[in-house]
């Protein structure tokens, strides 16, 4: 193993890690806001990828241009899922935790089934997109352009999210609702609106990552599952509910995954991530950047 | 201005207040006193929309508000400072106050009541960047009242503002209540410390086990022999 191979795989690990962070941040946002884990998060990613695919096939819109459209569509979808399902699930009088889990877990299964029915289980891919298959070489390291652009999109999205949360009234309302959802009515804020916005925002962020992922990843009904697992690990690693913990957690997961791939056969790729996850939850259960 | 008519509120079948009626006129300070468990907090919650009365009506400026969502009642001009204050603990004093003016976002003079807040509680101005959770009990109460004033209420409702506060600051807070009234607002206070409350109030109600036991001007109530014996320890 040469130094070059190591740098090469760490560099691509870093790029994937930033994308993992972007996939996970929506999950962290929603969890932080209302302590609900969206078990359909991977399926949100899946429909975002299909949406990108169909925009490309039917309207010849390149995934790069489709990204904002897909994010907007997912925003609406996320808000609707909150208003029609989660809003009622969190009011459950008995077994509230179970009701929350199975209402989103059930949604995941339904979405997968619908995708299989309408889109068939075939593997699809976006071919001949602007960025697909291109690489650049930086100081002798080859970087795939789609992942590079994806990483830049992730950094930009995190920057925008930071400004949104810290500089806008709605961002402050989001933070206040995280702190004490029962108290925001005291200043005239409707917490249901904030929750709906939180779900919309979380879904829009996963929509953005889905559009980027569609450039270089196969699209099929179960595609969300493996990424959702990574997203849950990322969120736990970064600290449950911490938006910027998800960013850091994503980078760590990406680097660990790349390192594992260097040392172990490809089929054992998940071992490294899982080991790091267990290490963190045993030593620091609230995650690296979480607070309790 | 505020008219509570025969309101009954229950939690899980247990009646906390029963057919309570109170009136608050514009510009008054009204004190609702009573022992622990008399139903004082439930009364304020029922007005604020934090609890839904089982029966009876609450009207504000001639309009029924019982059954409205709590945030809507806030936007109609009733600010409620609950017993445990419910600040946003990890947000700064500045952010807590700014959230108070959330209803006026987009307006140029959204933070207009801030002058009054800083005049009443100069310490808040010194602690603007501190997290709310790092303030002392008294300062937290000041911030809670300050945040409520930022919603530009016509009626301010305070639940036990003296609770968990050093005696010196209790006086400061009661004096602030008088100045809030002088600034044109109406105040409804619920208190266990009856003597301080009667000192600044125009009128008072005494609640006992969920019912109105007595009502009258603050002067009348404070000289009533039964009250003096049972509540003022005289």
From TrEMBL, chain A:
<dbReference type="GO" id="GO:0006865">
    <property type="term" value="P:amino acid transport"/>
</dbReference>
<feature type="transmembrane region" description="Helical">
    <location>
        <begin position="44"/>
        <end position="61"/>
    </location>
</feature>
<feature type="transmembrane region" description="Helical">
    <location>
        <begin position="262"/>
        <end position="283"/>
    </location>
</feature>
<dbReference type="Pfam" id="PF02653">
    <property type="entry name" value="BPD_transp_2"/>
</dbReference>
<dbReference type="InterPro" id="IPR052157">
    <property type="entry name" value="BCAA_transport_permease"/>
</dbReference>
<feature type="transmembrane region" description="Helical">
    <location>
        <begin position="6"/>
        <end position="32"/>
    </location>
</feature>
<comment type="similarity">
    <text>Belongs to the binding-protein-dependent transport system permease family. LivHM subfamily.</text>
</comment>
<keyword id="KW-0813">Transport</keyword>
<keyword id="KW-0812">Transmembrane</keyword>
<keyword id="KW-0472">Membrane</keyword>
<dbReference type="InterPro" id="IPR001851">
    <property type="entry name" value="ABC_transp_permease"/>
</dbReference>
<feature type="transmembrane region" description="Helical">
    <location>
        <begin position="226"/>
        <end position="255"/>
    </location>
</feature>
<dbReference type="GO" id="GO:0022857">
    <property type="term" value="F:transmembrane transporter activity"/>
</dbReference>
<keyword id="KW-1133">Transmembrane helix</keyword>
<dbReference type="GO" id="GO:0005886">
    <property type="term" value="C:plasma membrane"/>
</dbReference>
<feature type="transmembrane region" description="Helical">
    <location>
        <begin position="194"/>
        <end position="220"/>
    </location>
</feature>
<keyword id="KW-0029">Amino-acid transport</keyword>
<feature type="transmembrane region" description="Helical">
    <location>
        <begin position="98"/>
        <end position="119"/>
    </location>
</feature>
<keyword id="KW-1003">Cell membrane</keyword>
<feature type="transmembrane region" description="Helical">
    <location>
        <begin position="67"/>
        <end position="86"/>
    </location>
</feature>
<feature type="transmembrane region" description="Helical">
    <location>
        <begin position="139"/>
        <end position="165"/>
    </location>
</feature>
<protein>
    <submittedName>
        <fullName>Amino acid ABC transporter permease</fullName>
    </submittedName>
</protein>
Automatic annotation (TrEMBL), chain B:
<dbReference type="InterPro" id="IPR032823">
    <property type="entry name" value="BCA_ABC_TP_C"/>
</dbReference>
<dbReference type="InterPro" id="IPR017871">
    <property type="entry name" value="ABC_transporter-like_CS"/>
</dbReference>
<keyword id="KW-0067">ATP-binding</keyword>
<keyword id="KW-0813">Transport</keyword>
<feature type="domain" description="ABC transporter">
    <location>
        <begin position="2"/>
        <end position="234"/>
    </location>
</feature>
<dbReference type="GO" id="GO:0015658">
    <property type="term" value="F:branched-chain amino acid transmembrane transporter activity"/>
</dbReference>
<dbReference type="GO" id="GO:0015807">
    <property type="term" value="P:L-amino acid transport"/>
</dbReference>
<dbReference type="InterPro" id="IPR003439">
    <property type="entry name" value="ABC_transporter-like_ATP-bd"/>
</dbReference>
<keyword id="KW-0547">Nucleotide-binding</keyword>
<dbReference type="GO" id="GO:0016887">
    <property type="term" value="F:ATP hydrolysis activity"/>
</dbReference>
<comment type="similarity">
    <text>Belongs to the ABC transporter superfamily.</text>
</comment>
<protein>
    <submittedName>
        <fullName>ABC transporter ATP-binding protein</fullName>
    </submittedName>
</protein>
<dbReference type="GO" id="GO:0005524">
    <property type="term" value="F:ATP binding"/>
</dbReference>
<dbReference type="InterPro" id="IPR003593">
    <property type="entry name" value="AAA+_ATPase"/>
</dbReference>
<dbReference type="Pfam" id="PF00005">
    <property type="entry name" value="ABC_tran"/>
</dbReference>
<dbReference type="Pfam" id="PF12399">
    <property type="entry name" value="BCA_ABC_TP_C"/>
</dbReference>
<dbReference type="InterPro" id="IPR027417">
    <property type="entry name" value="P-loop_NTPase"/>
</dbReference>
<comment type="function">
    <text>Involved in beta-(1--&gt;2)glucan export. Transmembrane domains (TMD) form a pore in the inner membrane and the ATP-binding domain (NBD) is responsible for energy generation.</text>
</comment>
<keyword id="KW-0029">Amino-acid transport</keyword>
<dbReference type="InterPro" id="IPR052156">
    <property type="entry name" value="BCAA_Transport_ATP-bd_LivF"/>
</dbReference>
């Amino acid at each position: 193993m040469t130094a070059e191979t190591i740098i090469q795989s760490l560099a691509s690990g870093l790029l994937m890690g930033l994308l993992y962070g972007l996939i996970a941040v929506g999950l962290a946002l929603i969890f932080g806001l209302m302590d609900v884990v969206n078990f359909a998060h991977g399926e949100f990613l899946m429909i975002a990828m299909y949406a990108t695919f169909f925009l490309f096939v039917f309207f010849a819109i390149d995934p790069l241009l489709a990204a904002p459209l897909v994010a907007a569509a997912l925003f609406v979808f996320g808000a609707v899922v909150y208003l029609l399902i989660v809003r009622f699930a969190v009011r459950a009088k008995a077994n509230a935790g179970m009701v929350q889990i199975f209402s989103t877990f059930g949604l995941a299964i339904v979405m997968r089934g619908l995708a299989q029915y309408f889109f068939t289980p075939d593997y699809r891919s976006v071919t001949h997109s602007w960025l697909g298959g291109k690489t650049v070489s930086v100081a002798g390291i080859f970087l795939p352009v789609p992942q590079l652009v994806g990483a830049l999109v992730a950094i930009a999205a995190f920057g925008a999210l930071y400004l949104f949360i810290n500089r806008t009234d709605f961002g402050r309302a989001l933070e206040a609702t995280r702190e004490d959802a029962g108290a925001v009515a005291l200043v005239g804020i409707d917490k249901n609106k904030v929750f709906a916005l939180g779900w919309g925002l979380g879904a829009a962020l996963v929509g953005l990552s889905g559009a980027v992922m569609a450039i270089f990843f196969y699209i099929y009904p179960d595609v969300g599952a493996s990424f959702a697992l990574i997203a849950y690990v990322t969120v736990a690693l970064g600290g449950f509910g911490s938006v910027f913990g998800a960013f850091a957690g994503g980078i760590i997961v990406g680097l660990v995954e790349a390192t594992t791939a260097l040392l172990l056969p490809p089929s054992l790729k998940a071992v490294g991530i899982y080991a790091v996850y267990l290490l963190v939850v045993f030593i620091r259960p609230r995650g690296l950047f979480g607070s309790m | 201005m505020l008219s509570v008519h025969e309101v009954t509120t229950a939690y899980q079948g247990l009646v906390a207040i029963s057919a309570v009626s109170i009136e608050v006129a514009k510009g008054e300070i009204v004190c609702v006193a009573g022992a622990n468990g008399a139903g004082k907090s439930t009364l304020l919650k029922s007005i604020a929309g934090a609890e839904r009365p089982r029966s009876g009506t609450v009207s504000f400026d001639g309009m029924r508000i019982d059954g409205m969502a709590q945030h809507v009642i806030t936007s109609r001009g009733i600010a409620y400072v609950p017993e445990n204050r419910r600040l946003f603990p990890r947000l700064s004093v500045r952010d807590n106050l700014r959230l108070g003016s959330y209803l006026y976002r987009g307006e140029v003079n959204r933070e207009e009541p801030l002058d009054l807040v800083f005049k009443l509680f100069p310490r808040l101005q010194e602690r603007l960047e501190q997290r709310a959770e790092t303030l002392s009990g008294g300062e937290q109460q000041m911030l809670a009242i300050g945040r409520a004033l930022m919603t530009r209420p016509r009626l301010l409702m305070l639940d036990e503002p003296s609770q968990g506060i050093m005696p010196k600051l209790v006086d400061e807070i009661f004096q602030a209540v008088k100045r809030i009234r002088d600034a044109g607002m109406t105040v409804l206070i619920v208190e266990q410390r009856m003597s301080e409350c009667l000192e600044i109030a125009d009128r008072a109600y005494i609640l006992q086990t969920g019912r109105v036991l007595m009502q009258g001007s603050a002067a009348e109530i404070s000289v009533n022999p039964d009250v003096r014996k049972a509540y003022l320890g005289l």
